[in-house]
């Protein structure tokens, strides 16, 4: 199924649809924790980078080899320009993905390899089930050289962007599933 076919198809409410690295179309149910986590991260972009900072959420970004993605949150270069309705992956400074289910490895494994391979400077995995955030930096052809894990509830986490700005993620404000409390 092509990206255009997916964007023109109506899927059940409450599901996210994305392409896996193997070309499969994956539908995953969305949780309230995921939604609230994205909202919290968006708020932190406003506080850190200003109301008009170029950020997108669940919007397709073009990657080479037809590996398009619609990340949970992306911080773009300030001079980034859309090509049609999409941005190019070369305009991305940071991508953050929120783990959707306790057993999901997509964000930890597949996306880490993909975003590193395409040179995304910072990739952040936010895992409400584990109560941790993993910040990947120094991309390589197969992933990232560095990965640092930070626990929820440990204050504000400054993340340096390639353009010299700092995005600060408030680890005290990230929601957790009720069962994890």
Determine the strand fraction and express it as a percent band: 25-35%
Described by the principal axes of the CA atoms, the overall outline is globular
The order of strands across the largest sheet is 3-5-7-8-9-10
What class do helices, strands and sheet pairing give?
Answer: alpha+beta
Cα Rg: 15 Å
Mean pLDDT: 86
What is the tally of helical segments?
A: 3
SSE run: HEEHEEEEEHEEEEE
Instruction: List unreliable stretches of 5+ residues.
Output: none
Strand count: 12
Please bin the fraction of helical residues: 10-25%
Major sheet characteristics: 6 strands, mixed
Q: Distance between termini?
A: 39 Å
Describe the structure.
The chain is an alpha+beta fold. 19% of the residues lie in helices and 34% in strands. Strands 3-5-7-8-9-10 form a six-stranded mixed beta sheet. A two-stranded antiparallel sheet has the order 1-2. It has a two-stranded parallel ribbon with strand order 4-6. Strand 1 and strand 2 form a beta hairpin. The longest helix is centred in the first third of the chain and has 18 residues, at 32-49. The protein is globular and about 40 Å long.
Short note summarizing the structure:
The protein has 181 residues and is an alpha+beta fold. The protein has three helices and twelve strands. The protein has helices at residues 3-7, 32-49, 106-117, and strands at 15-19, 25-29, 55-56, 61-62, 73-76, 87-88, 92-98, 122-127, 132-140, 143-151, 156-160, 166-170.
